[in-house]
Amino acid sequence: MAATTVYKYKEPAPRVDAENPLESMMSRFNVAAEILGLDEETYEVLKAADKQVIVHIPVTMDNGKVRVFEGYRVIHNTILGPSKGGIRYDKNVHLDEVKALAAWMTWKCAVVDIPYGGAKGGIICEPATMSAGEMERLTRGYTLAMKDVFGPDRDIPAPDMGTGPREMAWLMDEFSKTVGGTSPAVVTGKPLVMGGSLGRTEATGRGVMVAAMAALKKLDLDPHNVSAAVQGFGNVGAWAAKLLSEKGVKIKALSDISGAYWNENGIDIDEAIAYKNAHAGRLDGFQGATMLENADDLLTTDVDVLVPAAVEDVITEHNAHDIKAKLIVEGANGPTAASADPIINEKGIMVVPDILANSGGVTVSYFEWVQNKQGFKWSEKMVTERADRIMNDAFEKVYQTSRKYDVPMRIAAYIVAIDKVAQTYKFRGGY
Q1: Does 377 participate in catalysis according to the annotation?
Q2: CB-hemisphere CA count at 13 Å for 260?
Q3: pTM above 0.90?
Q4: Dihedral in degrees, nearest 10, Cα atoms 319, 12, 76, 192
Q5: Do 313 and 14 contact (CB within 8 A), yes or no?
Q6: What is the pLDDT of residues 176-194, one digit of tens each?
Q7: Contact between residue 97 and residue 21 where contact means Cβ atoms under 8 Å apart
Q8: What is the pLDDT of residues 313-345, one digit of tens each?
Q9: Distance from the CA of 174 to the CA of which of 99, 183, 243, 252 falls in 20 to 30 A?
Q10: In angstroms, how far is the first alpha carbon of the chain from the final one?
Q11: Number of neighbouring beta carbons within 10 Å of residue 50
């Protein structure tokens, strides 16, 4: 295998509607709940967050002035185990968004059958305008404010938009001070030297590959005779493209912020990654493919597999009719607008939904937590083998559920997740 680049990991997060993110998340939940015949009492319990915490964090800025930041942590559900979810730093963070993301994490953990509930956190700030010192003081202040929320057996944060291993290291250190001993299991996404897991960086992209291989098998397609287009060449997209190409899939199209690139004979992914790393993370001027006049045309190119791994709502009612792919594997969250679903279903395109396809990241986060609790580091081979098994098992369960209820894979994934949480409530007597 060619040498690979270590990318800074960012936890994938679902599509959030700018006007009402909570209702956006609930729309597909409602469809699945109705199919399941979920009783009203359980429905009311599952749709509401267990806990919402709002804090205000005073931080001394580099200019000597004190600025107060607003932060959130929402615990949606803990019936399956301690809550799990990232912390995002962004100027547009708001409480409804965090509530939606926390609920999403409940369903994502349930669909891959790992013993976590869902949570999410956020701070309203602009990381790009802040120094490392200001970011550290903000992170440590947030950790102190949440010291009674976080805990290895209560609530385990992770990176998200605007955060990464550096912030998780600060969080772990500050929390450890509050308990009087090193507590690596309080957070995942840490640097390797501090208890981070091997295989974590590529985990989400690898999960996309595993899901794609499972779907191709159901469609009776040989990977060596299959072509693909990958929209988005960041962490998830680059790893997905690389690992798919190693399985024999011909990657004919790639895109990033600079545009979309096409090569009928297939793009050399290692070459594209090397070029990107040497050119400030962009593919501008890449000679291994021809630049498409319109980047959005990548979505409707003549390929068998489409992997949207960039942003939300790229597949809409306006372009869904023109998609030629037989399979869509959602590396990003919410890349398919709800209005496009009926069109895609009518065309007979199989979609491996985001809630399943990109859950490899939280799966390996779970492995990191387990290793920290054990005090024993796993080999990369052990991590990837176990992650692949979990992804394959989850895919098969969702696939069989889609056949049982005669529904698309997306709704089937929600059915699997909601049913697991609802049944656990009934067995535990949660209310």
Answers
A1: no
A2: 19
A3: no
A4: 170
A5: no
A6: 999 999 999 999 999 999 9
A7: yes
A8: 788 888 899 999 999 999 887 788 888 889 999
A9: 99
A10: 52
A11: 17
